[in-house]
Amino acid sequence: MDYERERQEAVEAGERALQSLYAARDSLQSARNWGVWDIIGGGLISTMVKRGHMNDARDAMAQAEQDLTRFQQELADVGEYLQLETDDFLAFADYFFDGIFVDLVVQSRIKEAQAQVDTVIDRVEGLLDWLKKE
After folding, report:
1. Among 93, 92, 75, which residue's Cα sits nearest to residue 84?
2. What would the 3-class secondary structure string for the chain be?
3. Which residues have C-beta within 8 Å of that of residue 131, sequence separation ≥ 6?
4. Is the pLDDT of residue 85 over 70?
5. Cβ-count burial of 21 within 10 angstroms (0-12 exposed, 13-18 middle, 19+ buried)?
6. Nearest CA among 67, 82, 83, 71 for reference residue 23
7. How many C-beta atoms lie closer than 10 Å to residue 66's C-beta?
8. Are 47 and 80 in contact (CB under 8 A)?
9. Among 106, 111, 114, 129, which lies 20 to 30 A Cα-Cα from 91?
10. Best CA proximity match to 39, nearest among 117, 108, 114
11. Half-sphere exposure of 30 (CA within 13 A, CB side)
12. How far is the C-alpha of 47 from the C-alpha of 115, rounded, in Å?
């Protein structure tokens, strides 16, 4: 096994995961912003735009799930058994996007999803920093 090659593959996989997570975070922030407008009387258009951003976030979170799985595999190839512990994040993402919710509940769930995404981003960034210093 070529450690340097495996380490570089892990870094690349982690960076792909971060890009997906950043996209999810950005879409959630946009959905949250439009959700505020929706609550104060934005109407049908703001609801549609908010839902569009929620759909974008869902897609980015699905991509992040794939990318995080690949990153975990690459970490194992390096021989470091570092765990991302993303199960709660992924379960929350599934729950977050099920069904139709009233505006205030949606805002709360968007905020919770943002916190989950930020937690995973922090963990991936920390692992990448460690891999790059290795």
Report:
1. 75
2. CCHHHHHHHHHHHHHHHHHHHHHHHHHHHHHHHHHHHHHHHHCHHHHHHHHHHHHHHHHHHHHHHHHHHHHHHHHHHHCCCCCCCCHHHHHHHHHHCCCCCCHHHHHHHHHHHHHHHHHHHHHHHHHHHHHHHC
3. 7, 10, 11, 14, 78
4. no
5. buried
6. 67
7. 12
8. no
9. 129
10. 108
11. 17
12. 22
Closest-CA residue to 63 (of 28, 27, 19, 94): 19
Tracing tokens 């379960």 back to the chain, one arrives at 91
Q: Which residue has the tokens 């869902």?
A: 58
**Residue 32 buriedness (CB in 10 A; 0-12 / 13-18 / 19+):** buried
Reported confidence tier of residue 122, pLDDT bands at 50, 70, 90:
very high
Judge contact between 93 and 119, C-beta under 8 A. Answer: no
pLDDT tens figures, 53-72: 988 988 998 899 899 889 88
pLDDT band, residue 81 (cuts 50/70/90): low
Residue found under tokens 């922030």:
29
Q: Note whether 93 and 116 are within 8 A (CB).
A: yes
